[in-house]
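Q: Sequence in, structure out?
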Amino acid sequence: MSKNPAEGTGKVYYFPIQYDQKTEESRMLSEDFLDFDSLWDYSNRHQTETRFREILLQVPENNLAYLELLTQIARAQGLQYKFDRAHQTLDQVERRLGKYSSRAKVRYLLERGRTLNSSGRPEEARPLFEQAFNMAKDLSEDFYAVDALHMLAIVAPPASGLDLNLRAIQMAESSSQAKARGWLASLYNNTGWSYHDLGRYDSALEMFERAEAARRAQGRVNEIRIAQWCVARALRSLKRVDEALSTQMALKEEFEGDGENDGYVYEEIAECLVMMDRAEEARPYFARAHEVLSQDPVLSEKEPKRIARLKVLSSG
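A: Exactly. Output:
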């Protein structure tokens, strides 16, 4: 990913706004902060945490941005599976929040909930996401209200999750806030998978195509490729295998042209070939998929049968 243009220029990443308890509520409802969230690199969580900690040193502890930034440090820790450390960071935020509704409190609720969900405690996470949604709505913080709905969809059963995703899409599409509308690509993708899990493949394909269009408008190559992969996956489920294989082969050429190997693309090529009664051609792709995906510790832990199946199919 490209670096933020402010990096290394000596610019300060916050507005030095002071507050006290008496005026906290009105300030919390109205203040704008520099968007340090643009520095997120979800492919490198450790580097993101380090970067945020460097910025934190520049922010006075009585600045409202301090608490928001701590929530994102906790998020980076959670994404590294450092759940105890993430909760400790969030404890620091909780002690300083006070009794008033605020964007910082919304973000605290979201990250506490995300940490709980990621560590296998979705039932404890759900009420926090509900609180975050209601508070964000009251504060007219559409971006975080949509975020909360999308997290509620993740912890919900499939049918309820679909309804929540559709609510989130409606909220994002109707919002006057550009940042909230920026959720749409992710929401279309998530809703596509909700439809796919329910076997509604036509609806899934429609959502994945909308996600691809939104990703193309954003212009980020990696996200566009993921969206294309999802479209092809839905096409395979619809038994439009020729189209699915054509897209996956094109993605393979793109990745390899950049010196990269994508195990999920190899896996899908193999699955398409099997459906076309071309099992011999599929074997080397299953082998390449196994070689790449077996190196992913999270996937190996969560889906060991999938990894084992790739190995079996690669050997015939």
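The CA atoms of residues 72 and 111 lie 8 Å apart.
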